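hi! just following up on the protien thing from before. the input was this:
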Amino acid sequence: MSTASSPPNGASQPPRPGIPVPGAHLPGAAASVEPADPDRIKAEVGALLAELGPRAAASPAENTETGADITRRARILEQAHDVLVDALATVDKI
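and the predicted 3d structure came back as:
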């Protein structure tokens, strides 16, 4: 049975106003609707991980340099994480 306001059988309904959309709560969510490009994401994350380079073994006398290296590595990993989170938010919107 259908009413005057219900869509025909098999037709999808448009989102109702006020219903949350996945990813809409994220900052900048309305700015871009571009789908995630796996090759671009892999390239961005790969470039960031390449910046990490090999980890050098440090002696106890190099604690200051080790701390700076850990901070640099943490910043790079955080950037890679942000790239992946943005990609997931884009996929979530589709």
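The two ends are 31 Å apart (CA to CA).
The chain has a mean pLDDT of 75.
cheers
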